[in-house]
Amino acid sequence: MAKKKRIAAKRNVPAKKKATATKKNVAVKKKKTTKKLPASARRATQRLVIHTNDITKILGINIRTAQRLLQTIREELGRKKKDYVSIREFAQYVHLEEEEVKQNLSAEVLA
Asked: Which of 27, 49, 52, 99 could hold 84 in an S-S bridge, CB 3.0 to 4.6 Å?
């Protein structure tokens, strides 16, 4: 019973308020605005490597299958486990044209 009283007493204690400075004392920092370039002036960057999520969307396969596919491509190329696979190398391995793969990737980004 005593424990319940202690818990109830703790709940009824009002929280201490932090002292806040008045608006006069607070220095207002102005945000630096950066000018954004129009979409036509921005330089479009092309990706050089392909990831498992891209492969799943292009080929319509499970993510684990895409991981295995990337691993087999790396093994055939003599790459290490964490090395990247380029879009060109992927396209050659799955017998697709490089341009088709790039177009599909750019369509995914826009969608």
From this structure: 49
What span, in angstroms and rounded, lies between the C-alpha atoms of 58 and 91? 11
- Tell me what pLDDT residue 45 has: 72
Bridge partners for 49 per DSSP: 86
Place of tokens 């002292």: 19
Percentage of the chain modeled with pLDDT above 70: 60
Which of 40, 65, 38, 36 has its CA nearest to residue 53? 65
Please say whether the beta carbons of 30 and 15 come within 8 A.
no
Is residue 89 a contact partner of residue 48, using CB atoms and an 8 Å limit? no
C-beta separation of 70 from 55 below 8 A: yes
Rounded Cα distance between 94 and 10, Å, is 67
Q: Provide the CA 26 distance to its chain's centre, in angstroms.
A: 37
Instruction: Using alpha carbons, select from 96, 59, 97 the residue that is nearest to residue 68.
Output: 59
Mean pLDDT is lowest, of 19-23, 55-59, 102-106, for: 19-23
